[in-house]
Amino acid sequence: MTTTHxxxxxxxxxxxxxxxxxxxxxxxxxxxMLGAARSPVIAAVVAFVIVAIQLCATxxxxxxxxxxxxxxxxxxxxxxxxxxxxxxxxxxxVALRDLVITWxxxxxxxxxxxxxxxxxxxxxxxxxxxxxxxxARAEQLTTTQPTPQASAAVHVEVHTGTAQVDDPARHDAHHxxxxxxxxxxxxxxxxxxxxxxxxxxxxxxxASTIARTLGVHHATxxxxxxxxxxx
Length: 231
Fold this sequence. Notes:
Keywords: Membrane, Transmembrane, Transmembrane helix. It contains 9 helices and no strands. It is elongated and about 75 Å long.
């Protein structure tokens, strides 16, 4: 995706997010003001906070998944983010559904569509913005990475027991791809190691041979190859 197209897409998703959030806030606040709450002001503030929590939780859950980290802390944070997102989604859904039934005259059988459109608009636009941001960061890392020295390139020879040094142009191509793969969060090893895997793959080595020769986990080699093939 070109920079112009990415910028246009980012603006679109931001406009979609702002519009969906504004509709959700207006709907929830209106429902609070027109409802049977003892304090409409407090009810309106709570409604606003719920929308803010959904925005933050949705983005947080997506960011955690994209980070591809592991461990108990990651799982706990992801569960909390997902729980908050789902909880706020349900509260907003119920409020907007009640609003369109009571004050807009929608039939209960179809009233659920209105809050679903608004809530999914917030979720979809937030995820879209996060994905575009990650793509832009990956491209920036690729273009700003300093040119590596040719002597740093290690080539795994498949058919013989000797090692040879790749030509600079070929190594630069592998290294640029490696930087992009690492920036996308596909693997958690250094770009130089990813470049070695790509070089060995280009010479016809299979995943098992590459993993054994370079000392890289077989699953990591598979992810590198899959991301290279998908590019």
